[in-house]
Amino acid sequence: MATKQEAVEAKQGLSYDVTNGVAVITVDQPGAPVNTLSPDVGAAFSDLLLQAERDPEVKAVVFISGKKDNFVAGANIDFLQTLKSPADVEAISRAAHAEFDRLEAFSKPVVAAIHGACLGGGLEWALACHYRIVTDSPKSVVGLPETQLGLIPGAGGTQRLPALIGAEAALDLILTGKNVKPSKAKKLGVVDEVVPVPMLKDLALKRAAELAAGTLKVERSHQGFKAVAQSSKKKGIAGLFQGLINKDLWKEAALEDNPLGRKVMFDQAKKQLLKKTRGKYPAQEKALQVIRVGLESGRKAGLEAEAKAFGELVFTDVSRRLVEIFFATTALKKENGTSNPNLKPREVKKVGVLGGGLMGGGIAYVAGVLQGVPVRVKDRDDAGAGRALKQVQTVLDERVKRRSLTRLESNAKLSNITAGTDYSGFKSVDLIIEAVFEDLKLKHQVIAEVEAVTGENTIFASNTSSLPIGELAKGSNRPSQVIGMHYFSPVHKMPLLEIITHPGTAEWVTATCVDVGKKQGKTVIVVNDGPGFYTSRILAPYMNEAAYLLAEGADIVQLDKALVDFGFPVGPITLLDEVGIDVAQKVGPIMEAAFGKRMVAPKALAGVVSDGRLGRKTNKGFYLYENGKKKEVDPQVYLLLPHGKDRKSLDPAEMAERVALQMVNEAIRCLGEGILRSPRDGDVGAIFGLGFPPFLGGPFRYADALGPANLLRKLEHYQDKYGERFTPAPLLVEKVRANKGFYES
Question: Which of 498, 545, 578, 666 is catalytic?
Answer without folding.
Answer: 498
